[in-house]
Design goal:
mainly alpha, 21 helices
């Protein structure tokens, strides 16, 4: 018998408040205000680390406000906190450390809302898409601030482009799901990558160059580390206080391949789901430390995304092989495994977790190897206006590997 999710919005309201208060603690009012202004007025092209642009305090405040806004509209719509929606909220919050803010995200969300109204759909069923569609928010900021338009025209074009992308993302993402057969968890990210390539091509065709940006915070990362560690340990402890402990963890979560749509909030006890989220956070933190990486904005975003998807397909058994595959590739190739780009690739490569979950550790390692190759080189195609670069790369890798290994498995079974 399926279980019903008992996640509540009050927990997410509390989380948003904690993030805002943490940000206020990290900086004074003047610095945080100036930092927020710098954040919302930046082109936000990948990689634009808001900790570097506006400071740690402003970054946490921006993320907290983004979460608060998303939770509020989700709550008012009557949307249920499914695994997909939890993943969407965590992903939106994570990427609010390096690319998303209210003024570049609202037009995209509005586009999704308008589509549901035109089609007479219940918007509550698409709140997760409304969260994920903000992955192309730099496209909106690009028109606002970086393409040389006068301010009024730039804002008008950016707003309209955002609405347009939001309006088409639901039918497009449904279609794109067939491309990778559900083995890429970031399906909307893959779809947005295709959309971003089209827009990047159009802009370049009309001599509107997309600026190349690489702003990455390399300062003291103690506070982001403490925040993530505290969050992960709190989740783990919450899971352990369940009267039944984690005795069903293997049966209800670890036994799943993670392929779309695997919703742990429906099939598992809340304590187990939260425990899995905390454990995945702890594993991700350990990976960053082992890689000698920094807990800057993008890395914080990557860890929060993994924790969110730990309610929707990811668990240690299907994630670790992917991460190890990327790490080993980084060790033997020309890229520095401690660089933010390398660490990010390993964290976000876990979009391919269902491949390891379904086909095993060796195939998971191979998927990590191929993902590293594709993700490192695909960014030019979309010019950094798709924050979900690894979603695009993951969809391509899945489309290559899945048919091959499905065929090999069928041949083995028939012998």
């Amino acid at each position: 018998m399926k279980k019903i999710s008992d996640f509540r919005y009050k927990e997410f309201y509390l989380a948003s408040l904690i993030m805002v208060l943490f940000g206020l603690f990290l900086g004074n009012f003047t610095n945080n205000t100036n930092g927020l202004i710098k954040i919302i007025s930046s082109p936000s092209i990948l990689i634009s680390d808001y900790m570097e642009i506006g400071g740690q305090g402003a970054s946490f405040i921006n993320a907290g406000l983004m979460l608060l806004f998303s939770v509020f509209i989700s709550d008012k719509s009557g949307a249920r906190l499914t695994g997909a929606h939890i993943a969407g909220l965590f992903t939106l919050t994570g990427f609010s450390f390096f690319g998303k803010n209210l003024i570049n995200s609202i037009p995209l969300m509005l586009g999704v809302y308008l589509y549901t109204k035109v089609k007479s759909y219940n918007v509550a069923n698409f709140m997760n898409v409304m969260c994920f569609v903000t992955g192309i928010s730099p496209l909106v900021s690009l028109f606002y601030f970086a393409l040389g338009f006068n301010p009024i025209l730039g804002f008008a074009l950016g707003f309209l482009v955002g609405i347009l992308v939001g309006f088409v993302i639901i039918p497009l993402s449904k279609s794109m799901l067939n491309f990778h057969e559900g083995y890429c968890l970031y399906n909307v990210g893959f779809t947005l990558g295709i959309v971003a390539i089209v827009f990047a091509g159009i802009l370049r065709m009309f001599d509107r160059e997309i600026p190349q940006i690489s702003l990455i915070y390399q300062g003291n990362d103690m506070y982001p580390f403490v925040f993530l560690l505290s969050l992960s340990l709190t989740f783990i402890l919450y899971g352990l206080i369940n009267a039944n402990g984690i005795k069903n963890y293997k049966k209800e979560i670890l036994s799943e391949s993670g392929r779309l749509l695997t919703d742990f909030t429906i099939n598992s006890d809340k304590h187990l789901v939260v425990f899995n989220m905390g454990l995945m956070g702890l594993i991700s933190i350990a990976f960053v430390i082992i890689s000698a990486g920094k807990f800057n904005g993008p890395v914080v975003g990557g860890i929060l995304t993994i924790m969110g998807f730990a309610a929707f397909g990811k668990h240690p058994r299907n994630v670790v092989p992917i991460m190890v595959g990327v790490f080993l590739t980084s060790v033997i190739n020309k890229y520095d495994p401690s660089s933010t780009q390398a660490v990010l690739t390993a964290l976000f490569a876990t979009t391919l977790a269902p491949i390891a979950g379904d086909f095993g550790i060796v195939v998971g390692l191979l998927a990590g190897f191929l993902h590293k190759a594709v993700a490192t080189n695909i960014g030019f195609a979309h010019g950094g206006i798709n924050l979900y670069n690894n979603g695009l790369a993951g969809g391509m890798v899945a489309a290559i590997l899945v048919p091959i290994f499905k065929n090999l498995r069928e041949r083995h079974m028939n012998e």
